[in-house]
């Protein structure tokens, strides 16, 4: 039977597959199986150490169960061979009574084994996920540039789930099964060693068939899982991009792509079902074939008087106990190999060292306001901005491809620096360096005279506020989103911040006022309102350095005027970097840096730059035209 191999996804003309194709590309170079590795197993077991008591009880229960199951069979066979074969009614009752007690105990232990294994697996998975999340959150921006989102999600979801299965099932189930097989083997060898050798001879054949098909099933199952991830990812992408889809009348094209992905998914599911449909009957046929051989051999021994029928029955029962675990163990072994590959990936992610970290002797960036307030937690109302200096800074995201060249400037405390330039000129890169999201390749960035490398990122970010162009809002209320700037702020302080920005009335006028829910990307409120929420968030945080990527989207003149007033209030007293898209902002900046190809080509105030009639004057004309169009 042919197993469909993943084919390259085809994007319909005019529509890049983007996320879907990227996910597929990423999936393909990851190995699905890895040999058992003692190091990985030990590390996984290390995660159970905090639950050592539960783990030990679980191991004890597992060993007990490994003895109980064959014990039940042994007792059953003894009842048949003894009291039943000899017509001893009273002994039959006693035997059955003992059997019932053992059965209840077996299943009682089974309940706890099952429960503890699930709880232990959950605890390990929970810890692994939090560790991965915390680790990823600590990584510098360069990491996210290299590590694709799909991979991080894959580690957290399918890889961790595979590890869960391994912890909950593979180890404990295998102990029970191996115990069952060993017990059965000993009893069979003692009962009839000739028949036992026949059974042992059959085992490798069953094992080989099982392994072959299980590996195939596993590959199909992974392909089905991945194709389903592509289906859900495409669905998410389509819903997110619905405006673009409808705006460009791409509904039919996208529906065609989606049908293709569904067909792909179905194909793997069918392959999975077909492999299963071959394996199960094949295993059954094999068992029946072996039973036939045993019947012939055993029957001949009984007829020739070499053995008793009750012994033959006992042997058959144990042969079954010996064969049944083979299938289960084959499956568990397969899962163990898949889990090894997953564990290796998850641990590789956890072991990824950031390409840079704060120096061990990095110091906190001092906040003069705290000094003025006598070191108390609360800050005074004064907001002296920080002094930010770039000295001969060059920078490359990727080695050998510099995007900033020898950038030098000083942003004096409380001043506003506007960064202007065409797209790709390096505005955001300057901001990324000022925020210590990246480190310069050459030169120095100084905050209050201290090299940024010598400062802790945490203390720097605590004194820095950011308003992004996308105005990202988390799911929750407007109030919660504003409070993100200072979680301990009271409702009144949030309202005061909004009032200071002169937007209290606008936010109160929302359907539920400050308690209006804003969904993913702040859906449900307008672009202007979103920006005001972000301004209020930044104001509440009361940063000394403010970074603002001005929204490019067109906003009506009235909102524009209010935003402008709010912005003027927000930047007051703070050292501000504004990626400026509006003339009104640039006009009020103390220093305008004109960027081109990663270099500062002109600098000065708006007025002085206009009079130079150079690059800025040209940009200014474009800005003025854009502003005109908005009005
Ligand atoms: N994460 C990244 N990895 C690699 N190159 C990047 C990355 N981010 C930006 N660049 C490149 O760096 C250069 C400067 O980009 P930057 O984002 O600083 O420009 P910008 O002036 O802010 O542009 P825009 O106005 O479009 O936001 C561009 O050539 C861009 O392609």
From TrEMBL:
ABC transmembrane type-1 domain span: 57-335
SUPFAM superfamilies in alphabetical order: ABC transporter transmembrane region (SSF90123), P-loop containing nucleoside triphosphate hydrolases (SSF52540)
The keyword Metal-binding belongs to this UniProt entry's keyword annotation: no
Statement: the UniProt record of this protein carries the keyword Transport: yes
TM stretches of this protein: 57-76, 91-110, 170-187, 193-209
Main location: membrane
Keywords: ATP-binding, Cell membrane, Membrane, Nucleotide-binding, Transmembrane, Transmembrane helix, Transport
An example Gene Ontology CC term for this record: plasma membrane
Pfam families: ABC_membrane, ABC_tran
Subcellular location field: Cell membrane
Membrane topology: Multi-pass membrane protein
GO function terms (MF aspect): ABC-type transporter activity; ATP binding; ATP hydrolysis activity; ATPase-coupled lipid transmembrane transporter activity
Domain ABC transporter span(s) in chain numbering: 388-622
Protein name from the UniProt record: Sugar ABC transporter
């Amino acid at each position: 039977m042919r197993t469909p191999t993943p084919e390259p996804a085809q994007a319909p003309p005019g529509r890049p597959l983007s996320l879907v194709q990227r996910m597929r590309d990423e999936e393909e170079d990851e190995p699905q199986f890895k040999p058992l590795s003692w190091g990985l197993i030990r590390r996984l077991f290390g995660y159970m150490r905090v639950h050592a008591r539960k783990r030990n009880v679980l191991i004890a229960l597992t060993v007990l169960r490994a003895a109980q199951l064959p014990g039940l069979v042994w007792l059953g066979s003894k009842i048949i061979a003894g009291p039943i074969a000899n017509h001893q009614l009273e002994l039959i009752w006693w035997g059955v009574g003992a059997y019932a007690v053992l059965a209840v105990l077996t299943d009682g232990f089974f309940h706890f084994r099952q429960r503890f294994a699930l709880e232990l697996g959950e605890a390990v998975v929970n810890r692994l996920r939090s560790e991965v999340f915390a680790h990823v959150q600590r990584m510098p921006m360069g990491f996210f540039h290299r590590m694709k989102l799909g991979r991080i999600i894959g580690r957290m979801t399918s890889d961790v789930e595979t590890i869960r299965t391994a912890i909950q099932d593979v180890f404990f189930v295998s102990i029970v099964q191996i115990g069952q097989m060993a017990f059965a083997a000993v009893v069979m060898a003692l009962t009839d060693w000739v028949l036992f050798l026949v059974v042992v001879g059959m085992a490798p054949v069953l094992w080989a068939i099982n392994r072959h098909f299980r590996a195939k099933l596993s590959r199909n199952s992974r392909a089905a899982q991945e194709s389903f991830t592509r289906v859900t990812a495409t669905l998410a992408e389509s819903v997110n991009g619905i405006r673009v889809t409808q705006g460009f009348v791409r509904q039919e094209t996208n529906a065609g792509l989606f049908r293709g992905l569904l067909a792909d998914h179905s194909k793997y599911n069918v392959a999975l079902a077909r492999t299963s449909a071959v394996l199960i009957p094949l295993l059954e046929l094999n068992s029946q074939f072996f039973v036939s051989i045993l019947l012939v051999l055993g029957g001949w021994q009984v007829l020739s008087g070499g053995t008793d029928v009750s012994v033959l029955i006992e042997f058959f029962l144990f042969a079954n106990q010996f064969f049944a675990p083979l299938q289960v163990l084959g499956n568990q072994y397969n899962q163990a190999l898949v889990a090894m590959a997953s564990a290796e990936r998850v641990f590789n992610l956890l072991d990824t060292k950031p390409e840079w970290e704060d120096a061990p002797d990095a110091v906190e960036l001092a906040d003069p306001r705290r000094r003025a307030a006598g070191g108390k937690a609360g800050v005074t109302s004064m907001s002296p901005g920080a002094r930010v200096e770039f000295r001969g800074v060059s920078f490359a995201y990727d080695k050998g491809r510099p995007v900033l060249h020898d950038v030098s400037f000083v942003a004096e405390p409380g001043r506003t620096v506007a960064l202007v330039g065409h797209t790709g000129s390096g505005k955001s890169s300057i901001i990324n360096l000022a925020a210590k999201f990246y480190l310069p390749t050459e030169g120095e960035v100084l905050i209050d005279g201290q090299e940024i490398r010598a400062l802790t990122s945490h203390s720097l970010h605590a004194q820095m506020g950011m308003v992004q162009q996308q105005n990202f809002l988390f799911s929750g209320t407007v109030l919660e989103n504003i409070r993100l700037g200072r979680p301990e702020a009271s409702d009144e302080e949030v309202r005061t911040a909004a009032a200071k920005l002169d937007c209290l009335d606008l936010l109160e006028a929302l359907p539920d006022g400050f308690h209006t829910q804003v969904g993913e990307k702040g859906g449900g409120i307008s672009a202007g309102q979103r920006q005001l929420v972000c301004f209020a968030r930044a104001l509440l945080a009361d940063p000394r350095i403010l970074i603002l990527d001005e929204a490019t989207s067109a906003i009506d003149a009235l909102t524009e005027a209010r935003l402008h007033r709010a912005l003027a209030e927000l930047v007051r007293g703070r050292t501000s970097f504004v990626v400026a898209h509006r003339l009104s902002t640039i006009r009020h900046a103390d220093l305008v840096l004109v960027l081109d190809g990663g270099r500062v080509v002109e600098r000065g105030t708006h007025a002085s730059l206009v009079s130079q009639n150079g690059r800025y004057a040209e940009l200014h004309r474009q800005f003025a035209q854009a502003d005109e169009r908005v009005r």
